[in-house]
Amino acid sequence: MGIAAAIREAAIELPSRVQSAGLAGPGARRRQAAAVIEEAAGTARVSGALDRLGSTLLFRKGQSVVQQGDLASHVFKVASGALRVVRLMPDGRRHIASFLMPGDFFGLADLESYGHSVEAITDSTLLRYTRSGLEGFLDRDMQMRRQVFGVMCRELSAVQDHLLLLGRKTATERLATFLLAMAERRSPHRPGEDRQVELPMNRSDVADYLGLRIETVCRVLADLKQRRIIDMPDVHSIVILRRDTLEDLSAGDSD
Amino acid sequence: MGIAAAIREAAIELPSRVQSAGLAGPGARRRQAAAVIEEAAGTARVSGALDRLGSTLLFRKGQSVVQQGDLASHVFKVASGALRVVRLMPDGRRHIASFLMPGDFFGLADLESYGHSVEAITDSTLLRYTRSGLEGFLDRDMQMRRQVFGVMCRELSAVQDHLLLLGRKTATERLATFLLAMAERRSPHRPGEDRQVELPMNRSDVADYLGLRIETVCRVLADLKQRRIIDMPDVHSIVILRRDTLEDLSAGDSD
DNA sequence: CGCAAGATTGAATAACCTCAACAGCTGTGG
DNA sequence: CCACAGCTGTTGAGGTTATTCAATCTTGCG
After folding, report:
1. Taking burial as the number of CB atoms within 10 A of a residue's CB, which of A63, B130, B179, B223 is the most buried?
2. CA distances from B136 to A90, A142, A151, B77, B245 (A)
3. What is the pLDDT of residue B188?
4. Do B151 and B108 touch, CB atoms closer than 8 A?
5. Which of A139-143, A227-231, B80-84 has the lowest mean pLDDT?
6. Are A243 and A251 in contact, with CB atoms under 8 Å apart?
7. Nucleotide nearest to A174 (CA to C1')
8. Are B18 and B118 in contact (CB under 8 A)?
């Protein structure tokens, strides 16, 4: 689910050399100070023709990577951490289009300007590529190009799953779907070993992602816990006790 | 809005020679008879390297072009008519991901099997390309490839607008947004001349696209009409009387 | 004309939201 | 160390929106 989930496993390797860079452009940021970019040492590796293309950036929890409306000059790939992809309505209503996790891309589809802001949920390191550099690279490398195409296809497919969720699913179905997707995302290769789910984001983020209010998210989680379908060791940890029941719930099989 | 809107204007020219073909594969269709494919004469034109790639197919109102779950062997481009892109939940709830209009593509993002069914709302002619043929073509033609990439980007962007609509907008805001998008779609180049909006789909389709029930769609339309914001000469025709008010409504500026 | 499908309207209901109070945790400063 | 402030999360009560169920009307078509 969400944009990021489908992209996560993309086998695209875009290694990057470490390169000090400031994101702060000439224009002032609106709601918060320009991100403080720090050099992230130790994460660089040179292993392909893309090695001069990207720079590695570190963002602290809460910092913005890009702002909705900014000129879409770069494409990002998450190396570590977790981020949210946010859009605001004029009256302040907030919507989260997706969460970004390691391996996910952002900015591929933004042609003119970014349609969303991206904010770090936890401290995160990102690889940043110039759009022009990446495009030129893709023009020359067919294999890479096909992989990027595959990434976009899976992203589109994931977004359409989310459309169904927002358009037709009940609150309980949304939470069940979300928890299963988060579990799947953590350990995609062992479909039984993903009982423990870590939620880096807060309730407000979950609510804005699922098209619900914070209180509804709390209530549904409390209900699932009370029914012994999940456990909640702490606010950001979910343990899936009855996966099959959760799967039934996510598809609307029963109540 | 919707997948298709963003794709509509894609400048990709994929002319096709007419070619008789049956869509009915070896597998039986589930809910309705296999589409009756007829040769559509008169629409063929040879004007590029793609001329041997596609075949032109005609679908009657109500016929299915592809079924959710079918092997995704082809990509389609709408030549004329209108179609709906449908997904069904196990319990019968229905969701429409987008409407397809002339110029729109379908199947680009479906890698393994189609995630949606496509059904003709009105009689429609489609150009059909084999996935393998199209991919090979794209590998060889950089300009075409960039255009297809642009198509996918706009599609993704449109779907994300729709996520916001489904996740955060009220029924009135959804209808206002929808009507404006349909108007824009009809005459994209004359942003004042698009008062008259034709809705080829029925209320049920609109409801499933906007994440509402039929009755809600009716009530909101009746309310907009009563407030002299729109007129409804007949069920499938909307006249936009106060575009600015509709724009305010679509963004949630007022009531 | 007569039927069937779609559209509309009304009344009652349910799901989710809003508002409000409170609990739990974290970090700060005396 | 403790008190307190601020933030996030949780729970309760009541309100609103959109749904559900039902009846009626309209339209297209044989």
Report:
1. B179
2. 44, 11, 18, 17, 48
3. 60
4. yes
5. A139-143
6. no
7. C16
8. no
